[in-house]
Design brief:
Blueprint (H helix, E strand, L loop, with lengths): L5 H11 L10 H8 L5 E2 L11 H10 L12 H11 L6 E4 L1 H13 L5 E5 L5 H8 L3 E5 L9 H7 L4 E7 L11 H9 L6 E5 L7 H4 L2 H4 L5 E6 L12 E4 L2 H8 L9 H11 L2 H25 L10 E5 L3 H10 L2 E2 L1 E3 L4 E8 L3 H22 L1
Parallel strand pairs: 1-10, 3-4, 3-5, 5-6, 6-7
Antiparallel strand pairs: 2-8, 7-8, 9-12, 11-12
Length: about 375
């Protein structure tokens, strides 16, 4: 009779608690399921206007080098990002999307017996990464169901807490805290705790927050950014962290070699040098977001004001509305995994896509009213 080795049992027990991140439904899947010819994806907060033409040209030029390994240190990109943040290059750590950076930091500093504190309705990857590292994920409820309770999060930090994660603006709720509020939170935390400030949607509130690295202070502060949202490079998988050189030097030991590919490095570098394109896109998204939120408010379906490139729909029949939208060729993001079964997160699309969405929602709302009578 064979005996199961201890290492296998431990691995099985740990894996049993893990659930892979479930992304927004791909367009191709909806087309197959519904038997339709075209659809609009409004589930993953991608940039509807795409990347800068300069970024596309940079990738085209780099195609001839894809048979070579990329610069494993991403030297040019790190230098450009360092200039952007007014720091030296050793304050920067590029990653395969900011998601990889988040997971690297959590895996580096939290393990079995440790705790990772985050908001209950914060980005779900924090909890997944903590579980994968063997640490305990401790989530703190939001009094209004949407906004981080920073005071309660600070109180939840104990001697076992190694990492604290906050998203600002938050995904999926779109709420934001100003810099003074975040600094008060940082001041309340122990000096030896690592604090991840996830700023994936920073470009949409940069006028409010400024450069957080220059305005905020904590020995364990790690600010993460991405090129997936405002810069339109989600498919390239490129993000980065800004932190102290000593902290990043430790994290870098856990990083896989060549984690940022050739095309991503060149696209990000070109995108940084074409700031005008990004700013115009952000302003266009903000205008369309205001338009969509006003429409949802008129329908009585607005779930809250967002500071990201998405809006929140709230209705007791949100799941049914999601199905109706998919039948009409539009993919929203149901928020059931976040404990928000009556919410949908909907990415702000191009004007014509938003027109189509509003027409669909108006029809769905009318049908809901008829059925309720």
């Amino acid at each position: 009779m064979s005996v199961e080795p201890d290492w296998l049992k431990r691995a099985v027990d740990q894996a049993a608690a893990l659930h892979p991140y479930v992304p927004g439904k791909p367009l191709e899947q909806l087309l197959r399921e519904r038997g339709i010819a075209e659809a609009v994806k409004l589930a993953s907060n991608e940039n509807p206007f795409g990347p800068s033409p300069a970024a596309c040209e940079a990738m085209a030029r780099a195609l001839g080098e894809v048979h070579r390994y990329p610069d494993g240190n991403a030297t040019e990109l790190k230098t450009a990002l360092a200039v952007r943040h007014g720091v030296s290059a050793d304050h920067i750590l590029p990653g395969n999307g900011s998601n990889e950076v988040l997971e690297l930091v959590i895996r580096t500093f939290a393990g079995p017996g440790d705790r990772v504190v985050s908001s209950k309705r914060g980005f779900i990857v924090y909890a997944l990464a903590a579980q994968a590292a063997g640490a305990q994920s401790h989530t703190v409820p939001e009094p209004d169901g949407l906004t981080h309770d920073l005071d309660a999060m600070a109180e939840a930090v104990d001697e076992r807490t190694k990492v604290v994660c906050i998203a600002n603006p938050n995904n999926p709720t779109g709420t934001v805290h100003d810099a003074a509020t975040v600094q008060r939170f940082l001041d309340a935390l122990p000096r030896d705790v690592v604090v991840i400030l996830d700023e994936a949607y920073h470009e949409f509130v940069s006028d409010l927050l400024g450069d957080s690295w220059q305005r905020l202070s904590h020995p364990g502060l790690v600010i993460t950014r991405t090129f997936s949202k405002a810069y339109g490079l989600a498919g390239c998988r490129i993000g980065y962290a800004v932190s102290s050189p000593g902290l990043l030097e430790i994290v870098n030991r856990f990083r896989e070699p060549f984690n940022v590919n050739v095309l991503a490095q060149q696209a990000a570098l070109a995108a940084l040098n074409d700031e005008e394109w990004m700013i115009k896109g952000v302003e266009a998204v903000k205008q369309q977001r205001t338009r969509l939120e006003s429409f949802l408010d008129e329908l009585g379906m607005l779930g809250g004001r967002s500071h990201g490139n998405f809006v929140l729909l709230r209705h007791p029949k949100a799941a049914e509305i999601a199905q109706e939208l998919e039948a009409l060729g539009m993919i929203p993001r149901p928020l059931g995994p976040y404990g928000m079964a009556d919410y949908l997160r909907i990415t702000v699309g191009r004007p014509e896509e938003n027109d189509r969405l509003m027409d669909a929602l108006a029809s769905i709302a009318q049908n809901l009213e008829i059925h309720q009578v």
